[in-house]
Amino acid sequence: MAMMAKMRSLAPAFIITVGALFVLFMVISDSNVLEALGGKTNYVGSINGVEVSYQEFQGAVERQRETQKQQTGNDIPEEQFDQFRDQVWESLVTEKLIEEEVQRLGITVSDEEVKDIILGEDPPAFLKQNFIDSLGRFNREMYEEAIFNPQNEQILLQAEEFVKQSRYREKLQSLLEAGITIGEDELKRKFIAQNTYMDAQYALFANILFPDSVLNITEDDMRKYYDDNPDKFKINAQRKLKYVIFKNEPSHADSMLVIKNLENVKQIAENDTSDFKYFVDIYSEAPYSVDTFSVNQLSNDAIKAFKNANKGAIVGPFPAKTGGFDLYHLLNAIPSNEKFVRASHILISQMGDDEANLAEANRIYQELINGANFSEMAMEYSKDPGSAKNGGDLGWFGKGMMVKEFDEASFTGKVGEIQKPVKTSFGYHIILVTDVSTSKYIVERILNAVNESATTRDEKFNAANDFAYLAQNNGFEKEAELMNYTIQESGNFNLKSASIPGIGANKRLINFAFDNSLNSVSEVHKMPTGYVVAQVSEVISDGLEKFEDIQAKIRPMVVIERQFEKAQQLALEDMKKADNDLNKIKQIDSRIQVGNTGRFNSTTSIPQIGKDNAFIFTALNMKVGETSEPVKGLRGYFIIKLTEKTPFDSTAFQAQIATLRNSLYQEKKSTALSTWIAEIKDKADIEDKRYMFYGY
User: Please, which residues bridge with residue 46 across strands?
Assistant: First the structure.
């Protein structure tokens, strides 16, 4: 009540303040309202020097949002809204760049063109869709009546603008397509690729004949490869970040709020004569159903409550296996043909050998028999990390869910009796069966998920902000240690990276890493997973990777190169011994794979070889009866003897030339606009300042 009184006392001042700000906004809304209020720009970015205002961008966001709601029936989830804004920004950038290019290229669309499209024989689908009857017939009279109705003037203006923009794109697309050229050589290559079939005999001198162990690769070999192939080890400037993430996840207070709400629902339901379904329909986040649960589908607290509850009792709230909390209405407990046990265990597998593991297991077993606490011993000695932290508790499980030996011991053991060590493939287990159930429970339930509240998000942001401030002044690692925050480190990334390994996509954070020096600490950055504070942990300049750092990377490259050299050398030697006759190769060296391809062309995979483009390209350029020099393939060197080849059919080529030209044209047409847009985006000067408004 005191708080309400305080708010009422402040109300007049609040109204006056808001009123003053409203007037101020009205006066300067077309200029720099944000600068007037706090020195912040009113622009979210610029594209080739043309500024994009907050109002323009937010308007685009809302229009796209409304379109998606109409198409899907759903609003954008809050956790996806940052990503949605990114998509709208990219769309707006593309639109602005196209407008700029349209003007530069002198593309125009007259009012008369727009009128002809709207009033033409086949109006745009988005306009005529509301004037088609149940038989699919377009009612022209009603359409024109709506077009010329003065009450629809604003709608018509919007439609005209949409048609005009669409026409601009069509003309631009036509202009780009006019630049598509298809030469005679392209047509011939496509014809040959589709219509030339071959058959060949071959010998494969495979790299695997020369394993790493016989190649004797030295550090000098690796150094020479490194010096001879600098292009393979070039790197652009790169950065790494150490970071602390304040995750988007519910707090204990958020959980307690859900529990409190469900307790209130429980109290109301217990004192009300309505069916429980009535409360499910009002309060549950899952649709109403009557469920039959086995004990392995329920929390331990729920099972304990069900065992002690009468039919018709409302029990809970308890943690749900799927997350959140459940409030149950127990309809009945029924016998089940399936038996479930709950057991704890201590796994011993760390002593080095089987005999030592058994001795350790027997020692622990004896201590337990003498009165040691099972839970404490499990936390101290068990090598099953999943259950050890829970005092060895494995929860409930049915027959056949564990390995055979463990399963048998659990289902034959007595409740409360510590069993002698049982051996499985994992080690030795000391097993304690803590409960047995042959019941199922029929329930109705109210499920409430636990979501991160706005208060929790604010607390996370404030914690992140405090950490950033302290880390900037006192040191990143020092403050993280004092606050018991976990420091993680990203992988390498460059200025053009789409995302930061381990963190995700955040262009502003990438720019921070490249605009600042080693050990610089960032402000708070908003990510889909939470708030991030980062420190530049490594600065790598343009140049070559250091030889000392990449020897493990270089060695397999040298091995492969040496294998190819050996395979080529062997191919030349064996072919010389065989007088260039592939039929003799197997007699000279039984390790060599000799075979026939069968019929193939450039689009097929060759049996025993695969789709090896070097093999196929060489065969395409050979004459029947010709034997090739060694050809470097994917797995080694080939010697190829072409035995059959479809001759070039000039008559068929001329007959297909129109179809081939259209096919190539469609291939190029499908990528013309997207390729052009990617090129102008790459050259454009785009400044993104949305973080000043949206905090990321």
Answer: 51, 687
- Tokens representing residue 612 in the block: 């090896």
- Encoded tokens for 104: 């530069």
C-beta of residue 199 within 8 angstroms of C-beta of residue 598: yes
- Of 316-325, 468-477, 520-529, highest mean pLDDT: 468-477
Fill in the DSSP letter of residue 274: S
SS3 504: strand
* Residues 98/678, Cβ–Cβ less than 8 Å: no
* Residue 344 bridge partners (DSSP): 393, 432
pLDDT tens figures, 122-157? 898 888 888 888 888 889 889 888 889 989 888 888
pTM of the model: 0.63
- Cβ contacts of 669 within 8 Å, gap of 6 or more: 177, 180
> Quick one: which of 300, 370, 293 has its CA closest to 332?
293
List, as one string, the DSSP characters of 185-244: HHHHHHHHHHH--EEEEEEEEEGGGS-GGGT---HHHHHHHHHH-GGGGEE--EEEEEEE
Helices (H), 229-384: 252-270, 276-283, 300-308, 354-369, 374-381
Strand-pairing partners, residue 244, are 533
From 405, 605, 506, 682, select the one nearest 86 (Cα to Cα): 506
In this prediction, residue 31 carries a pLDDT of 40
User: What sign does the dihedral 589-591-597-601 (CA atoms) show?
Assistant: negative
CA 526 to chain centre: 18
DSSP β-bridge partners for residue 526: 531
CA 599 to chain centre: 42
Of 576, 599, 596, 605, which is closest to residue 588 (Cα–Cα)?
576
Helix H or strand E segment including 594: strand 593-596
